Input
Amino acid sequence: MRFILIPLEHQDYQLELIFNLKTIVMRFRNTQNDLTVTAICGTTCCLLSFDMDVNKTKGLLGFAIEREDKTEREKYFLKGFKYFEETGSNIGNGQLFTTFEQPIQSFLWEDFTVKEKHQYIYTIIPVFGKPKLLKYGKSCAITVNTPTNKLVEHEVYFNRGVAGSNAYASKFKNKKPSEMNPDEQQKALQWLSRGLFEALIGFVESATDSNYQLRAALYEFEYPPVLEAFKKAFEQRNVDVQIVYDSIGHKEKNEHAILTANLPSSIITPRSKGVNISHNKFIVLLKNSKPIAVWTGSTNITEKGIFGQCNTGHIIKNENIAQKYFEYWKCLHSDPEQAIIKNKTSEIQKELKSEEIPNGTSVFFSPRKSKDILKTYSDFLNNSNSLICGMFPFSFNKLIKEAVVRQTDQLKYILIDKQDKNTTLLNTDFDNVIVYGGYFKEPLFDWLKETSAGSLFKSGTNFIHNKIMLIDPMSENPIVIIGSANFSDNSISNNDENTLIIKGNKDLADMYLTEFVRVFNHYYVRQIAKKMTQTNNKNPLHLFTDSKDWVPTFYKSTTLKGKRKKLYDTMAV
Output
């Protein structure tokens, strides 16, 4: 028989939040009963950190986490994969266990099931005792509000980006969407899109009548519903539509899709001269011929780009930035030779040095004569004080690689689509964790057999397609770098590309950081689990029964877990 001891009195503490048009609260902290909880919220992720006096951690088995959803009026304990061997009766198939009985053994936890514009109360309860006789300490509750996708100047949409997952295997049995019936297919694509596709269509549809114009520059332009959206804008709403598409690397596929969709030739212009590839993925929205907003990011107009690979859609509502994109688009539309466009990109935006970039949003276009921007990016990395996060689909510039593997005291978390001779880095820095995309090709421990985006959709990158660098994202002056460019020499010298550099925007940094952690953790778990099978057969899902086996590493200033915890403990909120 099992006995669970719970304190009779349970106190909740609510932190009042103040929202106005200029400020969105996304970082929270509360201390209660000698336990401190810190949270960072994004639209679909909430990162939690716990801190208590190390002298009070003796016998600590972990933390139970109760989540109350005030918006949808639900309350329950969160679940995890890990369990005590003495009390867990795991039957496999990706089974989850309530943290009330199988507490999490970490001072860092991530909730990847939150929804935008919701209020949640997290109650964190320290758990002591023995697996068959759990004792619960006094709790700390923290109230958080998740933001909307729409910040003051920016809107950001992240697709699921982890098609190869236990969740997809459980929900959709690893079936290809093309092999599903219409209702099931719609549910699967909606789950994979997680709002990205809907936001893309919504941006095109925001051009509601003849007062609007749409100017697009697109690399892969193949997904029929998006082509149809442009067609409807032009034919049904009388929107002035003009699209420049890549007619070099993706000429055949793009022109087949354009022909199939029966897009009028008057709105289509091939980009075929003076570049290696026309790699942009942006749309400029104009009203009465005035640029007002831009859709950009890493998402190609393909089924795999929208639903399979990890991608971002980023809307920026800044007229000055939109005007620069429009000037750049006009140059692309003329299909210039390389010398012409290199001069034009430098004219629209001069070279950017790290010390000269102001707070706010800057934009950078390629191709151009100088590759100095890559030195600027490496300077940002070298000058980081606490944390670097990077997503790289392919190989990247030598200076950036050197900055990534340089011996430092700060944490560096790097996510790369696949490991090959160009992406394998000689890494001797303990604080630098490099992870590659992957999935469970066969059931492992208690996880299900998974699939990959390459199995679900045709051609292209299978895992990571985002091009993202975050420099000190938890600081008071974070830097977010995103766009179409792969941070390579070729992307700057020979491709049509665009990149945003956003400096000093903590809300935007929090939004990108929460998503980065979600995707990084997903692939990190798979990489580590596979390595464990090669060294021993210990099940990584089993919890420890002695606090000495897991607690100390979070209180050491030299360990990865200790440094991560310190970032939260010292973060301004």
